[in-house]
UniProtKB/TrEMBL annotation:
<dbReference type="Pfam" id="PF12796">
    <property type="entry name" value="Ank_2"/>
</dbReference>
<feature type="region of interest" description="Disordered">
    <location>
        <begin position="64"/>
        <end position="113"/>
    </location>
</feature>
<feature type="repeat" description="ANK">
    <location>
        <begin position="250"/>
        <end position="282"/>
    </location>
</feature>
<dbReference type="InterPro" id="IPR053080">
    <property type="entry name" value="PP1_regulatory_subunit_27"/>
</dbReference>
<keyword id="KW-0040">ANK repeat</keyword>
<feature type="repeat" description="ANK">
    <location>
        <begin position="184"/>
        <end position="216"/>
    </location>
</feature>
<dbReference type="InterPro" id="IPR036770">
    <property type="entry name" value="Ankyrin_rpt-contain_sf"/>
</dbReference>
<feature type="repeat" description="ANK">
    <location>
        <begin position="217"/>
        <end position="249"/>
    </location>
</feature>
<feature type="compositionally biased region" description="Polar residues">
    <location>
        <begin position="99"/>
        <end position="113"/>
    </location>
</feature>
<dbReference type="InterPro" id="IPR002110">
    <property type="entry name" value="Ankyrin_rpt"/>
</dbReference>
<protein>
    <recommendedName>
        <fullName>Ankyrin repeat domain-containing protein EMB506, chloroplastic</fullName>
    </recommendedName>
</protein>
<feature type="compositionally biased region" description="Acidic residues">
    <location>
        <begin position="75"/>
        <end position="97"/>
    </location>
</feature>
Length: 316
């Protein structure tokens, strides 16, 4: 019996041979055909398989949900899409094909440098712009902050929330005040903390942003870091020597906010770094009072226990 196997067509035929108990294998590839004997228990069987395909092992693995990089979506990768087929080709031919693809990719990527691409882009856009639009562009070789800013929408704050650190640096190099406030008294650091943009927060602090600035209600970046549950940002701000007992206009310290947000881990960090659990708000409430006002539930008791038992200035 002979088995003929063709690479591109992927058709496998088993047929009778004059030699008993022996199966002859004929493998047709792009380059050669070889025949090799294979022991078989029976010579009477006949198998016909057409359109056989081999699928990447990724197709058999369970998909894994992963967290997004830019925070906007999740991605599901099952490793296989409809029509994505892998055939059994001759090994040498496959290697040559991969080498050709790799070589073409390198050649393609080297045909146009970044500078050439930018010049081509500039020419294309200038052809698309009208005369009035070209006039605006010619008048603004550098960013004109007076034309792209309002008291609510600050370019530095917007770029920070978008995570555009290189563009933030360009504005800072042109003399933009890193601690400039909007109509609510918020700085770029405040906004980055609210948006939980940790790389931007670190960058602003390294660039000299003031972590002690209060907004129009007296709240500091630490207040907001506690409110949004940003534990690592809380720790970072403490490293920059912020006052953990600073109170806003209503007398609320970060510890009061932490109890209100019911965040056990941040509460503990504040306590061991010197937060005063006896401080009262303007209406006379201590952090423990706020915890108990939530009622008789597990979280209330858990926070009450922390406030009662964890001493200040002790490393845990």
């Amino acid at each position: 019996m002979l088995m003929a196997k063709t690479g591109p067509l992927l058709s496998t035929h088993l047929f009778h041979s004059n030699t008993p108990n022996i199966v002859k294998t004929c493998k047709f590839t792009k380059k050669n055909c070889g025949i090799s004997p294979i022991n078989a228990k029976s010579s009477k069987s006949r198998v016909l398989a057409v359109g056989l395909k081999r699928v990447s092992m990724k197709a058999h693995k369970k998909g894994i949900w992963e967290d997004p990089v830019d925070g906007n979506s999740s991605e599901y990768d099952d490793g296989y899409s409809e029509g994505d087929e892998e055939y059994e080709w001759d090994g040498e031919a496959e290697s040559e094909s991969e080498a050709n693809v790799s070589g073409n990719s390198v050649e393609s990527s080297s045909t146009m440098t970044t500078t050439q691409y930018e010049m081509e882009l500039f020419r294309e856009v200038e052809q698309l712009l009208g005369q009035e639009e070209k006039s605006i562009l010619e008048q603004n070789e550098a960013p004109d902050l007076s034309k792209i800013s309002t008291m609510k929408w600050s370019p530095l704050q917007t770029l920070g929330l978008a995570g555009m650190i290189p563009f933030m640096d360009k504005l800072l190099e042109q003399g933009v005040d890193i601690d400039a406030v909007d109509k609510d008294g918020l700085t770029a650091l405040h906004k980055a903390v609210i948006g939980k943009r940790e790389p931007v927060i670190s960058h602003l602090l390294r660039k000299g942003a003031n972590p002690h600035v209060r907004d129009k209600n007296g709240a500091t970046p630490l207040h907001y870091a506690v409110q949004v549950g940003a534990l690592q940002t809380v720790k970072l701000l403490i490293k920059y020597k912020v006052d953990v007992n600073v109170a806003d206009d209503e007398g609320w310290t970060p510890l009061h906010v932490s109890i209100q947000s019911r965040c056990r881990y941040i509460t503990k960090v504040l306590l061991v770094n010197g937060a005063d659990k006896t401080r009262r708000t303007k209406d006379g409430k201590t952090p423990l009072d706020i915890s108990l006002c939530y009622g008789k539930d597990f979280k209330s008791y858990e926070l009450a226990k922390l406030l009662k038992l964890v001493p200040a200035n002790r490393d845990y």
